[in-house]
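question for whoever is on the cluster today: can someone run the full assembly for these? three chains, 925 residues total. i dont have access anymore since they changed the login thing
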Amino acid sequence: MVSLIRRTVSRGFLALMILIALLPILWTILGSFKKLKDIVTPVPTLIFTPTLENFTTILQNPSIRDGLGNSVVIVGVSVLLGALFGIPAAYSLARHVERKKDDLQFFVLSLRFMPPVAIAIPFIIIYLDSGIYDTLAGLILVYLISTISTVIWLSVPAFERVPREIEEAAAMEGCSQAEIFIKFALPIAAPSLFGSLVFTFVLVWNELLLALTLAAENATLPVVAASITSLGKEVPWGVINASTVILVLPPLVFIGLLMGFINRMVATGRK
Amino acid sequence: MQKQRFVFWTLAPAFSILAILALVSVAGALYFSVMDRSLRYPDYDFVGLYNYQRLLGDRRFLNALKISAIWEVVTVAGSLLVAVFLSVYIFETTRSARTRNLICLAFLAPVLLPRVAAAFIWRFLYSPSLGLINYLTGLLGFGPIEFLADPQLALFSVAVVDIWQWGLFFTVIMLKLLETLPRDPIEAAQLDNAKTWEIHAYVTMPMLKAPVISLALVKAVESLRSFDLIFVMTGGGPGTSTETLDLYAYQAGINLGGRVSYASAMSILLLLITTVVFTLVWRGIRKWSA
Amino acid sequence: MANIKCTRIRKSYGGHTVISDLNLDISDHEFVVFLGPSGCGKSTMLRMIAGLEEISDGTVSIGGRDVTHLPPGERGVAMVFQSYALYPHMSVYDNIAFGLRRQKVPAEEIRRRVDQVSNLLGLGQLLERKPKNLSGGQQQRVAMARAMIKTPKLFLFDEPLSNLDAKLREKLRTEIRRMHLELKTTTIFVTHDQLEAMTIADRIVLMRAGAIEQQGTPSEIFDRPATRFVADFIGSPAMNFRECSVHVEGDRAELVSGSIRLKVPAKDYRDLVSGARVEVGLRPSKMDIAAEGDVNIISGTVVLIENMGSEGQVIVDVDGREMSFVTKAFRTIEAGQRINFSIDPDNIHIFSRDDGRSLLHAAA
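^ ran it for u. tokens below:
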């Protein structure tokens, strides 16, 4: 009997925790289908006539459409370039650099220490003076700091987990360094590398400060979303909810991947 | 020879881009911090250390320093405490792998949210008139609480959101780490009749010392990027009660009159403080965990 | 022709020299085993011959061609790794065929040779599988097939059996040996297991601390160890050692330690003079319960008997220190009883106490 009560209590506590984790998100999704009059109620409503009004408002709003487009281009290109430069560098760092390895890795890590304002302030002046303020290319350039360093940081362990003997076996069959990298290290490390790219994607997709500072018309979705607090007189909660949902969707798609990534990292990190 | 060429061509492009960008921003900030450049006028003059001098006498700057420090401590400690407590709790009460996986999936969702989105979600929940939380407190008989408008509460209300994202995320990682621990020492402790909390306090947590420290470090670095959350939720207000250093630097440099040189001096100081603090912490940790 | 010649090999990591001035010749068709404790440099030697490790100084030639600075793929050698190093993202077929494809061998020819090699090793049914779906023994065979198909001038094996269980290890050991008898390809095989080395090698190169301690056929190494280290490393159960003083009487020398008195012909050994102190080694397998007329009898109290099946190892307390010998008649012995056992004078090994070298004249 006592154990039954204890089990029920602990079940209840866990359920509450899951609720705390998910309810805010679910509530927002629910809110995005509500008319304003269903939101502005003293008692929260669960039963209402759903509407797509908020989404149509949003998708018809040119600044949000542009923001979405800009986000896709800026994040896509900067992650792609991050992978292009970062992954080969991570491979060489993992395999062929011995004495300088710690220094180089610390340099990469120290870029993560750098406060974003410390990047934003000088770049805004340089961009204004050189005329690339408010361009996609300008944002992509500063995002490269994040993407390249994050990709390197997360991919070095992925390559270190590729058994060295496999690469040596390939060398015995006459493969050049580049071939070993492309035909062996890359496909074997691929699952972990993909995880590191997803992580990088989420990081840049969610970025606000640099985009807010270095762009005006051509800003990304977080900037646009942050600015719709006041469309007209009333606070358009339904529209805010809907734009939040759009902002949230792409990263949430990757939740399963992130889980697998954590499992691999943890499993091999503790040998 | 062929190998050296390969190593050079894989490392050089990535590291030269990183080095140039890092150098440009640091050198740029240093350069502008000794000028009197503002965004409105393209001309500027050398003013020496004037900006730094003014900073040290700027009460709003000192306030931001204090807020940043509180923010760091609260969010790092909060996330880790939540993670340790919840992971041990789940580890002890949930045996089925499927339930654990479901819990993990739920706990991972918040951290994936863009900070802007998380900020909106919680601003909505915190709202005194139509927020869910105040409705619930109202049912319990508390009057509407001004979570974000009360200067005493605002910073902690925002910190809760940060801990909601990171504490739950770290819970998943800690749970996975607990699962990978060898069973033998835990079973040995059970044979010695240790209580559950004793096992975790004296056996499992000491075994996880190194990963917990690195989680703390990751969180400390991540907490420096509080801008997005605070900017959307309170904008630094009410007053300056949630204005951290990066927020003040942004307000001074870009929003209010664009005193970029002043903001540059601030970001240089910020850079200096974080570098010094992190190097010290890094060394301390190495000594301590060695 | 694929003889191997290593001349004045040196290997340093940073300022730390692990191998210095090592010379080694291996003749065509020979099966050579590098044997030694871990860290003795045997794997480093193998990897330098393979080209996976840079050679700090000296030259390596394979079949008369200097390969010192050639990349591994151009040396005409194939290697089987300890972890097998199969390509996890390729099927067994692709694993085996990869090397030939790189050499632009026509597809039909590849198919024919893969079939031939895989049938030889019993892999016919497994060609479409991925390595992770194979057992350890099967993975090991795929690794061998991958090495064999290239018809290399030289096979290198780096502890290929140490990840397998005892039974499979024995089976594959025989297979490797049989394969060598058939193909006659020059082979270098690295192991730390002395029993494996004894059973498989034409010649053992026993290494210690980056230098060759002794090389020779398994019998030479077992019967005439050149140093105390070799004597101790080879043979199981391990050799008994006693420090003895020497008394020379005419053409006989007597070795004395406590109650032990062993007589050996003095002329077979160098430096045996009265009053000298030497280290004497006695192999347990070369001793037995004393029979009528035996000289060199040792007596003691039986401490313990270890049943090894057809033989037993008897551990005996002699003057307060333990010695052991092996006998088939172990079932008649009981712990606690007094026992006399003896050794043949030809099997007494005498080593210098200064440098550990054997004092036997013929042993170099």
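summary bc i know u wont read the tokens: The helical segments of chain C are 42-50, 92-102, 107-120, 136-148, 166-183, 194-200, 218-223, 228-233. The first helix of chain C runs from residue 42 to 50.
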